[in-house]
Amino acid sequence: MTARLALDAVTIALGGRDIVTSVSATAHAGSLVAVTGPNGAGKSTLLRALAGLVAHRGTIRIADRPLASRTPQERARLIGYLPQGHTTHWPLSVREIAGLGRFAHGATDPRRLSSGDRARVDRALAETGLTPLADRQATTLSGGERARLALARVLVQDTPIVLADEPVASLDPRYQIEVMTLLRQMAASGVLVVAVTHDLIHAARFADRVMVLDQGRLVRDDIPASALDAACLATTFGIVAGTPLAEAALPWQLA
Amino acid sequence: MLGPVRLSPGEVLAALTGTTGDPVHAIIVRDLRLPRTLLAALIGATLGLSGAALQGLTRNPLADPALFGAPQSAAFAAVALVSFAGFDILSFAVPVAGIIGALVSVTLLFTLTGRDAPMVVVLLAGLALSSLAGALTALALNLAPNIYAALEIAFWLMGSLEDRSMQHLVLALPFMAAGSALMALTAPSLRALSLGEDVAASLGVSVARTRALIILGVALGVGAAVAVAGAIGFIGLVAPHLVRSATGHDPARTMGASAIAGAALLLAADCAVRLAPPTSDLKVGIVTALIGAPFFLALVARQRRLLAGDLP
Question: Which of A72, A92, A109 sits opposite B194 (nearest CB)?
């Protein structure tokens, strides 16, 4: 099975300093990979490099072709990117913002989508619980609603790879579980999902694999139970878990 | 077409179509009012489009070529060329100098402030650039070799559509058309940019190309406009806001509508100037500033939260 995403000695420098140092890893279609690590470990920078937004040394391959050799349009059809912080600069409607996901497929006007594209937008809004808010101005949404809208836009983009930076950071407990479940379902349908998260319990519960970054280096890359063992928690995060994380279920479930 | 000499719409039409019996009417309408009206509409449209493009690019509702120092820099370049290098005011070199002046100022602004700069930084840099260009123009006024040159400079400082001929139109039109075309090319990208530069890039937009096209487009349009009509400010700031609720805040649709609103605004301002007593010698640039500056203040008051960096 060829890797959908393969990193070979990837180093990323910002302002003359190496933020990510010589990371090599592979990730396959249909899996949910959590990237975690302390603040400043280089998680978001690595994700931005995977999205083609910052320059890197080494090689990032997507479906066996270097990322650097893809045109921006090709990248947009392969990789959906969900940044941290969900800024909308004009009071466009929720439906329009979600519809901008079709931009990657050449539909540049979200008010004039084909019926197929419109159906895709409706489905994504339903999946993220935004159908009742479809005609609201996105600037009037709460932080959690904006986070779900950003996810809806990525769903509409329909890419085989989704890169999400802290997708549940601003969500209440219920939507944290719903969004993680949705990412899980996307992986089950064949998408490769890479999610940066600080929430080790979510990483342990939902991810197939956990990559732990520490000071720009990849220190763990394994199934959650092995990656987030007591030694890693102690040396990388400086914490001790009450129960082993692999056994720690979320203290709550969806009602 | 309004002016101190009262002509009925029928008389204007007759003069335009060449069926009038009165040669004075024909001169007033065809040689004086027609070029002035066409220029007002074209310059207004160019400025309205430039404002909408800059606001879309920076996602900053306070963006405007004038607040970025573009017309002031273009005016300085034109002034320097005409007063000191002795070029004729109707030479094609004048709009070219204006374009270079505008290009330098807008490029400097974007280079100095960097990507995703907060509004307040962009506005301050724009203020500094326009003050610098203004000071240089004032210096040129100081050093002007004769009173005639000083008057020419004053015209550029204040902005005016008086005594413009079809030659002025021919001079500015190709540049304004090219600039507008470049800006129009970026319309779909501005829509994706509503979601920020990173998301726009992840949707396949080349942010650097969009920025370059708009900087070049604004420089071509504003530089040429300034070369024939002086520094006319605030049209680019006001026009997009007039149409935004009608276009549903879609940055792409706002561009075309803002061009139309800009044309209407400058035509209206110029009509006010034409109807003012001839002895007052009121300049259209002063009228647009008198309308635009309070509008800008009102916008600032409304956007205080945003200016303080407290983005929604």
Answer: A92
Q: Which residue of B has its CA nearest to A143?
A: B312
Contact by Cβ (8 Å): A77, B172: no
pLDDT tens figures, B52-99? 999 999 888 888 888 888 988 998 998 888 877 777 777 788 888 999
**What is the ipTM metric for this complex?**
0.92
**Is A123 buried (19+), middle (13-18) or exposed (0-12) by CB count in 10 A?**
middle
Check: CB of residue A168 under 8 Å from CB of residue A205: no
Euclidean distance between CA atoms B89 and B179, whole angstroms: 21
Distance of CA B171 to the CA centre of its chain: 16
Model's pTM, two decimal places?
A: 0.90
CB contact under 8 Å between B311 and A87, yes or no, is yes
Instruction: Please judge whether B203 and A52 are an interchain contact, meaning their C-beta atoms are less than 8 angstroms apart.
Output: no
Residue of B nearest to A142 (CA): B312
End-to-end CA distance of chain A: 39
Q: Residue B223, SS3?
A: helix
Give pLDDT, residue A244. 66
pLDDT digits (tens, 9 = 90+) for A37-94: 999 999 999 999 999 999 999 999 998 899 999 999 999 999 999 998 777 888 999 9
Please enumerate, as own/partner, the contacts of B127-131 that have beta carbons within 8 Å and a separation of 24 or more: B127/B67, B127/B69, B128/B69, B129/B68, B129/B69, B129/B72, B129/B73, B129/B105, B130/B66, B130/B67, B130/B68, B130/B69, B130/B72, B130/B73, B130/B105, B131/B69
Quote the distance between the C-alpha of residue B228 and its chain's center.
11
Query: Do residue A76 and residue B203 have CB atoms under 8 angstroms apart?
Result: yes
Query: Which two structure tokens, joined as six digits, stand for A25?
Result: 């890893």
